[in-house]
């Protein structure tokens, strides 16, 4: 498609201005990688400044599950801005926060009945870790201050969250000497739909047994390991984790930041295992992609124990905690979830992703193709050349953001069948073009 020279020139100028002063996530400022200025969003689409239009197969890093600019969420945001965009949460409260907390308690596992609002997913993980440590301090067991996780996990980019990410193969391995050393068992090796083998939990069981006096909690992504490898593991593994945590008197934290609010086909991924964590982190899709917001939920047992301790108060308090605007848009997003459309949309998308990506199994450079809910992953045998593949996808009218050797999509739930077919078609084309002749 030929682009008008004026729009193309303006787009180029924005890129130049950006590169003069902005540092983008996970990027090298001295090595120019492709940038695509966005003029506006509409439904499932990104409208670029140069006139091109892309189907967003990433839901803006897994957040915009209802698509962009949903009128219900826009109306809620506009009304709240007019009334009260922000007020401090220390010593004050407001109806949007109360209503949102009540709503979260009603839809999450029954054991979770206290809500601590946070700024982002990483902060929600930090809060979960501090809750666990302070709980054991209040129980007169201050030695229980470390954490156990599984390899190939990802929990965020702040210091505590980084310490839980895979210490050798994760993106934060360079910070090993800076971070607190935690405990790790082998990654879950039985896939989501494979028969259970009890030996798959043996390493985790050994680690938990050997270090239970040091462990405040186990922190795990339920069923789907996200940015650490986009792997889907057996629900029975998580069920056994819950049982073993109970047996060894260790708390269980479930990080539902990426998986929550319908992404896997369940409202929360832990439902596949029919378990309740002691602490749960939610974020990303909580606001429907409108703004950064998250929450950490815990049981009254944990909250009451902490508040009965020597310090009597939980020692955390983000400046924008309980932001009324974020609460209002979250309520609007949850109201859309309550309608239940996602319960038909996600299974349809899952079937279309499976069908559309099935031919990729036969591409020589593809190691695996896996789908769960509205998540599809192509794992390649060699690293993806991001700049080339990104350009190729954009040329096909699709926005995806590969990393490592993973080409994946987590599209908005409102994507049409035609749009899902366009996404899978672009992924197939890229696989054939760049990975047909790779050697295993």
Structure in words:
The protein is of the alpha/beta class and 440 residues long. It has 13 helices and 16 strands. It has helices at residues 5-21, 59-62, 71-83, 95-107, 121-138, 159-164, 202-211, 235-247, 300-307, 324-339, 342-357, 386-395, 417-435; strands spanning 38-42, 45-48, 53-56, 114-118, 146-150, 183-185, 215-220, 224-225, 231-232, 251-255, 279-282, 294-298, 366-372, 375-380, 398-399, 406-409. Strand 1 (38-42) and strand 2 form a beta hairpin. Helix 4 (95-107) packs parallel to helix 10 (324-339). The radius of gyration is 22 Å and the shape is globular. The two termini are 36 Å apart. The model has no long low-confidence stretch (mean pLDDT 96).
Keywords for this entry:
single chain; 440 residues; alpha/beta; Aspartate Aminotransferase, domain 1; Aspartate Aminotransferase, domain 2; 2 domains; seven-stranded mixed sheet; four-stranded mixed sheet; 13 helices; 16 strands
Note the topology:
Elements: H1 5-21, E1 38-42, E2 45-48, E3 53-56, H2 59-62, H3 71-83, H4 95-107, E4 114-118, H5 121-138, E5 146-150, H6 159-164, E6 183-185, H7 202-211, E7 215-220, E8 224-225, E9 231-232, H8 235-247, E10 251-255, E11 279-282, E12 294-298, H9 300-307, H10 324-339, H11 342-357, E13 366-372, E14 375-380, H12 386-395, E15 398-399, E16 406-409, H13 417-435
Q: How many domain regions?
A: 2
| Class derived from helix and strand content | alpha/beta
The count of β-strands is 16
Rg calculated over all Cα atoms: 22 Å
Under CATH at level 1, the class of the largest domain stands as Alpha Beta
Major sheet summary line: 7 strands, mixed
Spans where pLDDT lies below 50 across 5 or more residues: none
């Amino acid at each position: 498609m030929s682009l008008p020279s004026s729009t193309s020139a303006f787009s180029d100028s924005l890129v130049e201005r950006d590169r003069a002063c902005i540092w983008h996530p996970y990027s090298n400022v001295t090595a120019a990688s492709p940038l695509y200025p966005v003029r506006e969003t509409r439904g499932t689409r990104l409208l670029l400044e140069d006139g091109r239009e892309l189907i967003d197969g990433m839901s803006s890093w897994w957040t915009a599950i209802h698509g962009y600019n949903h009128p219900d969420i826009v109306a809620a945001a506009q009304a709240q801005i007019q009334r009260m965009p922000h007020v401090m949460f220390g010593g004050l409260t407001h109806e949007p926060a109360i209503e949102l907390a009540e709503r979260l308690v009603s839809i999450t596992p029954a054991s979770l009945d206290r809500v601590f609002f946070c700024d982002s997913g990483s902060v929600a993980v930090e809060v979960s870790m501090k809750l666990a440590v302070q709980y054991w301090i209040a129980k007169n067991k201050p030695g229980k201050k470390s954490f156990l996780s599984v390899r190939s996990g990802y929990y965020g980019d702040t210091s505590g969250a980084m310490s839980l990410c895979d210490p050798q193969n994760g993106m934060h391995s360079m910070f090993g000497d800076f971070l607190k050393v935690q405990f790790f068992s082998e990654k879950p090796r039985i896939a989501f739909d494979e028969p259970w083998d009890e030996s798959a939990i043996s390493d985790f069981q050994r680690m938990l047994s050997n270090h239970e006096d040091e462990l405040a909690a186990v922190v795990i992504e339920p069923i789907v390991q996200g940015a650490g490898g986009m792997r889907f593991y057996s629900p029975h593994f998580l069920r056994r984790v819950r049982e073993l945590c109970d047996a060894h008197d260790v708390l269980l934290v479930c990080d539902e930041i990426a998986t929550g609010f319908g992404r896997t086909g369940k409202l929360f991924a832990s439902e596949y295992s029919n378990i309740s964590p002691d602490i749960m982190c939610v974020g990303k899709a909580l606001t429907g992609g409108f703004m950064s917001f998250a929450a950490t939920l815990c049981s009254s047992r944990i909250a009451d124990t902490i508040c009965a301790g020597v310090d009597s108060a939980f020692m955390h308090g983000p400046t924008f905690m309980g932001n009324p605007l974020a609460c209002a848009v979250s309520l609007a997003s949850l109201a859309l979830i309550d309608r239940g459309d996602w319960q038909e949309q996600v299974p349809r998308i899952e079937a279309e992703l499976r069908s559309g990506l099935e031919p990729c199994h036969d591409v020589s450079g593809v190691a695996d193709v896996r789908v769960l809910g509205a998540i599809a992953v192509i794992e390649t045998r060699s690293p993806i050349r991001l700049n080339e593949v990104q350009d190729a996808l954009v040329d096909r009218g699709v926005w995806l953001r590969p990393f490592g050797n993973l080409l994946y999509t987590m599209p908005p739930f409102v994507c049409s069948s035609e749009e899902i077919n366009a996404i899978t078609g672009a992924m197939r084309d890229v696989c054939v073009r760049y990975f047909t002749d790779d050697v295993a």
